[in-house]
Design a protein that fits this description.
It is built from 17 helices and 29 strands. It has 673 residues and is of the alpha/beta class. Strand 20 and strand 21 form a beta hairpin. Helix 14 packs across helix 17. It is globular, with a radius of gyration of 26 Å. It starts with a strand and ends with a strand. The model has no long low-confidence stretch (mean pLDDT 97). Bound molecules: alpha-D-galactopyranose and zinc ion. Alpha-D-galactopyranose binds next to loops.
């Protein structure tokens, strides 16, 4: 097995220039490209008229790839429909949040419920599967592209009502779950239920949550519909679709619950586009976010994933699209491998000449490869990747888990109260990830699907929306000897965002050995302190006022009406321990706190020492116990790092000294073999 190197390729844009396609394959080979992903936006070429198909060009792509020893990932074209289809079947077009029907245009502009759309997709997918399902170099199916968005048409409204009926059975149950007597919102007929929309209702929190759940389910249903068409002729190749992150800040994609979707796909693949070299954070700070999200997406199936798209240099959709500095491409791509990817695939293999993506980074750009720095850097990465076949299938081993939940994220966004401007769930997750990152401790970011057993430490930041099932799982984990950390803003609401009697989910306070009385919030410039051991640390945004029952107080508040009361506590529960961090603190406290916890739990990092926090060392391990060390310098200065003795540099096959000096933006891969 090889690491995949290649990506999205659109030869259909070059059919009048066959010599260009010839040339492309020559350059691919030179750059150690072994995979192309094709077909995603080719519907108007594949089916220029209804039921008239033309596969000649795609046959040739499969042949060319085969001649060059390359694999093909075949996309289905549902991400963008042809003009003829939208004019003949206008209901395939989406109805937006203002309840207006879109015109033909853009892409991803389709209804997931539309009977006509599903039928046209079925037909074209079956044709593709029948023709290519058994090609030897077909590696996998890539359904559609970046499923996203929602539709508010009548067909979708009916489907939503049906979904509600299945979930709740009766309108009384819905009214209860939604607290609908508030503002006289009681439903007395199923037809009263509408999707949240800008002309009507957007503030019934449970409705918003259920709509997001429905959109996730409907998208999965569409995916399964596409898959069934493929499976009619092709059942022995993996099927997947490419996931996303939101914005250049790499926040988990918000529109769909990937912890649910992830269970359905055969392998997680996703599109990673960090804004390297921006002017609001250092490369190291951004690298932390890249690490976090890859650790999350790896956890969705607890297996290596694929980077389906990344840019060889810059994108075209950030506000400012800065090229990667020399060396950054190899470093950034090595980081993706370090966190569990078995590929570095790109958008795009050749830049288009026209329309909106002509200035997006590409392996082959407008400037010829011979004098194109980006192409040279891709080729140099290709060489590194060709030395890393042993990595395929290996996993990260982590003692620490940080818990993330999509539904909690949606609910937190809706909270009207506390400090709306400072809710900062994602920042908080990163804040709790940072101390481990700095100490080069592997972390799994997990969701409700993952087992907790096996982790020495489980961190649950801001779990506002908290189900009873989740609590039972955490209790079992702690009882058996696990260590959990809860924070402020936890356990307040149930799955339909109703506040629990007493203000906190029954059982949580008991496990934590505390009783919570209120949550204080601060204006941005206001501060409190926690006094922990001999030092004082700043508190901002949130402070939970609570008393200990069976817990031991570890830190107290420095001021305000709860001065001297517990701020941080720990309770022995079963064979384990449950920490409560009542206040939002800064980095200094979190580093100190988690540093001590790591020592106490005997969790060790991948490095022994290093000259700067901008160096990251991550590891993967194969089934035979061979460990790969990815040593990465995210600063532009030379940095030194001490790694365990006896490691070998993969690129030279020679042993390295325990203390390494890395050039600016340099990345090395070492192995324990
Ligand atoms: C997404 C899409 C691609 C392309 C890239 C550009 O990831 O899937 O088709 O538009 O963005 O970055
Ligand atoms: Zn619709």
């Amino acid at each position: 097995m090889k690491l995949l190197h290649g990506g999205d390729y659109f030869p259909e844009q070059w059919l009048t220039r066959p010599e260009t396609i010839e040339e492309d394959f020559k350059y691919f080979k030179e750059a150690n490209i072994n995979t192309v992903t094709v077909g995603m936006f080719a519907w108007s070429i594949l089916e220029p008229e209804e039921n008239h198909f033309d596969f000649t060009w795609l046959d040739q792509v499969f042949d060319k790839a085969e001649e060059n020893g390359m694999k093909v990932i075949l996309g289905t074209p549902s991400g963008a429909r042809p003009n003829w289809l939208a004019s003949k079947y206008p209901d395939v077009l989406r109805v937006n949040e203002r309840l207006e029907q879109n015109r033909f245009g853009g892409r991803h502009n389709h209804c997931f419920t539309s009977v006509n759309y599903r039928e046209r997709v079925r037909i074209v997918n079956e044709k593709l599967a029948e023709r290519y399902g058994h090609r030897e170099n077909l590696l996998m199916w890539h359904l559609s592209n970046e499923y996203s968005g929602e539709c508010h048409c009548d067909q979708c409204q009916s489907a939503f009502r049906l979904w509600m009926q299945n979930k709740y059975g009766t309108l009384e149950a819905v009214n209860q779950a939604y607290w609908n007597t508030f503002w006289s919102h009681t439903y007395s007929d199923w037809s009263h239920i509408h999707s949240p929309n800008q002309l009507g209702e957007m503030a019934v929190h449970a409705l918003n949550l259920d709509w997001r759940r429905f959109v996730t389910d409907q998208t999965i249903d569409f995916y399964l519909h596409e898959k069934a068409a493929i499976n009619k002729y092709s059942t022995d190749r993996p099927v997947t679709t490419n996931f996303m992150a939101d914005t250049e800040h790499l926040i988990p994609f918000q529109a769909l619950d990937y912890s649910k979707f992830g269970k359905i796909v055969d392998i997680i693949t996703w599109d990673c586009y960090p804004a390297w070299h921006n002017d609001w954070e250092t490369e190291a700070d951004l690298a932390l976010k890249v690490g976090f999200i890859n650790d999350l997406y790896r956890g969705l199936k607890e297996m290596p994933f694929l980077i389906m798209e990344s840019s060889p240099s810059f994108v075209n959709w950030h506000d400012i699209n800065r090229p990667k500095r020399p060396g950054m491409h190899k470093l950034a791509s090595t980081q993706l491998l370090a966190h569990g990817s078995d590929s570095v695939l790109y958008f795009q293999m050749r830049a288009s000449k026209g329309s909106s993506e002509k200035f997006h980074g590409s392996v082959i750009g407008h400037v010829p490869p011979e004098r194109n720095r980006v192409y040279q850097e891709v080729a140099s990465l290709g060489e590194r990747m060709s030395q890393l076949d042993g990595l395929v299938g290996s996993m990260k081993q982590s003692d620490v888990a940080i818990y993330y939940d999509w539904e909690n994220d949606w609910a937190i966004k809706d909270i009207q109260g506390f400090s709306k401007t400072n809710m900062n769930y994602h920042h908080t997750l990163h804040d709790h990830y940072r101390p481990f990152w700095r100490q080069d401790v592997n972390v799994d970011v997990i969701t409700k699907n993952n087992d907790f057993d096996g982790y020495k430490l489980l961190v649950m930041p801001m779990m506002y929306l908290h189900s009873r099932d989740l609590l039972a799982k955490v209790q079992a984990y702690v009882e058996a000897g696990g260590t959990v950390v809860y924070t402020y803003m936890s356990g307040m609401a149930n799955e339909t965002d109703l506040v629990y009697d007493g203000g906190t989910i029954p059982g949580l306070e008991d496990m934590l050995g505390i009783v919570i009385s209120e949550t204080d919030v601060y204006y941005p410039s206001q501060r409190n302190q926690v006094k922990f051991q001999d030092a004082s640390y700043e508190v901002h945004d949130y402070a939970t006022v609570f008393e200990t029952t069976s817990a031991e107080t570890l830190a107290i508040y420095g001021s305000d009406f709860y001065q001297g009361q517990a701020a941080i506590s720990v309770n022995h529960y079963g064979k384990g321990q449950a920490y409560f961090m009542g206040a939002r603190t800064s980095d200094d406290f979190l580093s100190k706190f988690y540093g001590e916890l790591l020592d106490q739990l005997t969790i060790v990092g991948n490095s022994v020492a290093k000259s700067s926090d901008s160096v990251s060392v991550q590891t993967r391990e194969d089934s035979e116990g061979t460990r790969y060390y990815f040593v990465m310098n995210f600063s532009d200065q030379v940095q030194t790092v001490e790694v365990p003795q006896g490691l070998v540099d993969v690129s030279t096959d020679l042993p390295v000294e325990a203390t390494l000096a890395l050039k600016g933006f340099e990345a090395m891969v070492l192995t324990s073999k």
